[in-house]
Amino acid sequence: MRKMTRRTAFAMAAGTVTGSLVINTATASADAPAPGRPAASGANPALRTALITQVTPRDNWRVTAVAIRHADPIDMRGGVIPPSAFQVTADLGGQSAARTVTRVYPNTVAGTDDLPGAGRPGRYLVIELDPDDANARASGTDPLPLQRAYTVRQVADVRTPGGELVLAAGPLAIRNDDVITPVVDDFTAGSFTDSTGFELAFRLYQPEGFVRSPGAAVRYPLVVTLHGGGEVADNNMTQLTANRVAVTFAKPERQRRHPAFVLAPQIPLPRPMDGPDGTDWTDPKVRAALVELIDAFTTQRPVDADRLYLVGLSSGARGIFNLLPRRPHTFAAALATAGWGDPSTMDGITHIPMWTDHSIDDPVVPYREGRFGKPGTWTLMGALESAGARVTRGEWANDLPKAEFEARSRALLNRARRTGSHVLFTSYPPGTTPVSAHFAWAQTYENDVVIDWLFDQSR
């Protein structure tokens, strides 16, 4: 893809046999013609194999299934395929280890089926894997090389309840060539070079309405997501896959409710630094490029300038608290999780709607003390209040079930509305944020109450 500069157009892209027993199914055409009726002889060749991955709220990016496309539809006639009929092995980093097969069923698409009775007749065989396997991750600091990394062996015949052979076991093993990541795959990759020559990579989701009718007189909100310090990299991927800060705004059910552009820039390596707190999004070079990118994007796409939203976690939240005082009339609202900042600048942003949250026992960005001598969210909210903003506070466990979590959020929002408050602050008691107390954001982006509130705000 060509680089994009502020001075130029904003352009973007709107089996071989290894050894003797392993087939790379990329050599077979995924569009090969096939009869329309299910094969009952067991002679139903595999055409192409893909890994299905998932970005999880707390546990990073994981391989959760394998989808094998067959020449003919697979119909179990009401039968169930035993997981023991298939063995799946992951070869990553020079190590080979088995994955745990949990369910196997046919499907009409290369995707998982969350229904208990999964198994619609179709050309795809879906092999679900335990996401808690130790080797389930799809990335470390960078994405793992997943192409041809998984091997699937059928070790037992698959038959209908009446005994008809549907898929025959054999000595050949299949390796994947494709990797499917729902929602992430809908983001375009691009880069932007600012007026000084500094470059930011980014990923962009474009709403379906714009893609279908780019010339229509419709303007869309823009959500700008600022990743955490762990996603500073040159891969233009982990800002989408390390957590759900960006993908949650692009998932189909969210876009149906709130169609919007989602812009997810990534800070490059080597890590820019100007002093102990001039890191990541607060680095002057990064901040200036981010501002130019947002300005360029809003002039090149049909963006509603009154509905620009900033969302960030950890150092991304630090970026929000750093950027808002410098651009106090640009953004309609912000979501900031586990951040820190300068209390002396809060008097310039008392008018901006914000919903912030933080775990009280956060070991990475302390709730009160923050980092690098800059206080955490609790102290910043106090400074906002002292400057004249009315802050509505709530506290509940971060590991509550989604329905209860949202009920608490709704009650907090109702209380804020009754008192005329547009700044909300949620704290999570010690021991209630799973995996790491720093990961307070896991529930934030799944919370429909919070997201609905965000999109309700306009400048």
From TrEMBL:
InterPro entries in UniProt: AB_hydrolase_fold, EstA_Ig-like_N, Esterase_phb, Plant_Biomass_Hydrol_Est
Keyword Signal listed: yes
Entry keyword set: Hydrolase, Signal
Keyword Repeat (UniProt): no
Domain of life: Bacteria
Sequence ranges assigned to domain Esterase Ig-like N-terminal in this UniProt record: 50-165
Signal peptide: 1-28
Pfam family, one: EstA_Ig_like
Protein name: Phospholipase
Organism encoding this protein: Streptomyces javensis
